[in-house]
Design goal:
Number of helices: 9
Number of strands: 13
Strand order of the largest sheet: 1-4-13-8
Structural class: alpha+beta
Strand content: 5-15%
Shape: globular
Radius of gyration: 22 Å
CATH class of the largest domain: Alpha Beta
Number of domains: 2
CATH architecture of the largest domain: Alpha-Beta Complex
CATH superfamily of the largest domain: paralog of FGE (formylglycine-generating enzyme)
C-alpha cells in the first residue's frame, strides 16, 4: 500500500516523514502474520501495536487538532493505541496488548495509509496558520517513531526468545566488531567545569535541556565495553551467588528470578549459546556482553573493583574523545587526535548503563498539555543509559541523548562500560 507523494521531495520534512514511516513497515518485512501479535511479557508490545501506536501519535497530536473536518479512521483506536497519555484519555491495558487480534494487521496498515495520506497533505500546506506547531510536533512524532522502531526490534527479540525454535528476525550478519577487541584499559578524562545537556537549534528531547554547568573532577573511563568472556569470568567466580556484590534491590531481583547469566544466554550440552536477532548462535567471547540490567552491570563493576560512570562523566568523555555518533568506534575528537588512547563503542552497539538516576536537569519544565507527558512524568525510579545500540535508527543518536529504564530491565540492548576515580 503506497501513499501519494506528489510534491513530497520538495519538502524535506514531508520526505523525512514518508521515509521514517516506510522504515517501520520495512522492519516488519521478515515477520509472518502470526508474529504481529506476540507479547511475551507486559513490558514488551506486539509489532502490530507499535505500528498502530506510532500512527495514533500523528492522528492524535496533529490531524485532529490541525485539520478541520478530519475523519478519524476508527473511533476506538484512540483508546486502543494510547500508550500512557492520561491527558488524552483512557488506555487499553498494556499487559493485554497481545490479546488484540482485531484490528487485523491489514486494518492497521490501512490505518497507517489513512493517516499518512492526511499527514502529507497537512505537511504540504505552507500557509497553514499553525504551521510552526505542525512542524514541531511532526518532528517530535518522527523521533517518537524512531524510538518505537528500536523497541519493535527489542520487543520481538524477547518474544521470539520464548519459542524453543529460536526464530530469526533478520538474515545472519557478520560480527559487528573485530574478533579480538583491544585490551581493556582506562583513559584519563580531565576534570572540568563542563556544560552538560543539549546546546543548539536542531531537534532534541525536552529531558536533554536546559544545558547547565557541571563541575566534574577527573576520572578514568574504560576504552571499550565489557565482553562476554570477561563477564563469564564473573559468573564462574560466583558473582551471581555473592550478595556482597549486589545492591539490596538487585539481590532481591536476582533471587526472585533465580538469575545466573545474561538474559539471552542459553546452555546446551555444556556449551554456551546466545540468542540474537539472527537466531541462536555459539556465544562469541569477544562480543560485548549485552542485555544485562542495571543490577547486573553494577554487580559486575563491584566485582572488578570499579564502578559505572555517571551520565555527566559519559557525556564529558564523549565530548573530549568522540566528535559525533557517526564517528562510531575508535574515532577521536579532533582535539584529542594526538592521544594514543582510543575510546571505542560509544555509539551503535549497546546502550550503556550509568549510575545516574533519571531526574530533571536544573530548570527543567515539562511542556504544557498531553505532550508534556512524554518524558517528565517518568523521572522517578529509573536509571539513565547513554550512547545508542545496534538497532537504534540512523541519525537518532547524539551525545546528550538520555535513555532511561528501570534497574530490572534487561530486554533492551544494554551493556557495561566501567569507570574509576582518577
Amino acid at each position: 500500500m503506497t501513499v501519494e507523494n506528489s510534491g513530497v521531495h520538495e519538502d524535506p520534512l514531508a520526505a523525512d516523514f514518508l521515509a521514517t514511516r516506510q522504515y517501520s513497515t520495512t522492519l516488519c518485512a521478515t515477520l509472518e502474520i502470526d508474529d504481529f501479535g506476540l507479547q511475551a511479557m507486559p513490558d514488551v508490545s506486539p509489532p502490530k501495536w507499535h505500528l498502530a501506536h506510532t500512527t495514533w501519535f500523528f492522528e492524535t497530536f496533529l490531524l485532529k487538532p490541525f485539520v478541520t473536518g478530519y475523519r478519524e479512521f476508527h473511533s476506538q483506536f484512540e483508546y486502543l493505541f494510547n500508550s500512557y497519555y492520561n491527558g488524552v484519555g483512557r488506555q487499553y491495558p498494556r499487559p493485554q496488548r497481545g490479546l488484540l487480534s482485531r484490528p487485523t494487521v491489514n486494518e492497521v496498515l490501512a490505518y497507517r495509509h489513512h493517516v499518512d495520506t492526511a499527514m502529507l497533505k497537512l505537511l504540504l500546506m505552507p500557509n497553514h496558520p499553525d504551521r510552526a506547531s505542525i512542524l514541531q510536533r511532526c518532528t517530535l512524532g518522527l523521533h517518537h517513531e524512531q524510538q518505537h522502531q528500536e523497541l519493535l526490534c527489542t520487543d520481538i527479540k524477547y518474544s521470539f526468545f520464548h519459542n524453543p525454535l529460536y526464530p530469526a528476525f533478520g538474515a545472519a550478519q557478520g560480527s559487528p566488531i573485530s574478533p579480538s577487541p583491544q585490551a581493556l584499559h582506562y583513559v584519563t578524562v580531565e576534570g572540568a567545569s563542563a556544560t552538560i545537556g543539549y546546546q543548539g537549534a536542531a531537534f532534541h528531547f525536552d529531558n536533554e535541556v536546559p544545558a547547565h554547568l557541571y563541575l566534574q573532577v577527573g576520572f578514568r573511563f574504560a576504552n571499550r565495553l565489557i565482553t562476554n568472556a570477561e563477564y563469564m569470568e564473573f559468573i564462574q567466580d560466583g558473582g551471581y551467588d555473592n550478595p556482597l556484590l549486589w545492591l539490596a534491590d538487585g539481590w532481591i531481583w536476582r533471587q526472585s528470578c533465580d538469575a545466573a547469566h545474561p538474559c539471552y544466554w542459553v546452555q546446551q550440552d555444556g556449551a554456551w549459546f546466545e540468542y540474537t536477532l539472527y537466531g541462536l548462535s555459539p556465544l562469541n567471547p569477544w562480543l560485548p556482553v549485552s542485555h544485562v540490567n542495571y543490577y547486573e552491570a553494577d554487580a559486575y563493576a563491584r566485582w572488578c573493583d570499579k564502578r559505572l560512570a555517571s551520565e555527566q562523566e559519559w557525556e564529558l568523555a564523549c565530548g573530549q574523545f568522540i566528535a559525533t555518533p557517526e564517528t562510531r568506534a575508535g574515532a577521536l575528537h579532533p582535539q584529542a587526535a594526538g592521544n594514543k588512547a582510543m575510546i571505542q563503542q560509544m555509539f551503535g552497539e549497546l546502550w550503556q548503563w550509568t549510575r545516574s538516576s533519571y531526574a530533571a536537569y536544573p530548570g527543567y519544565r515539562a511542556a504544557a498539555g498531553a505532550i508534556g507527558e512524554y518524558n517528565g512524568k517518568f523521572m522517578c525510579n529509573q536509571m539513565v543509559l547513554r550512547g545508542s545500540s545496534c538497532v537504534t535508527p540512523p541519525g537518532h543518536a547524539r551525545p546528550t541523548y538520555r535513555n532511561f529504564f528501570y534497574p530490572r530491565d534487561h530486554w533492551q540492548f544494554s551493556g557495561i562500560r566501567l569507570a574509576d576515580d582518577g
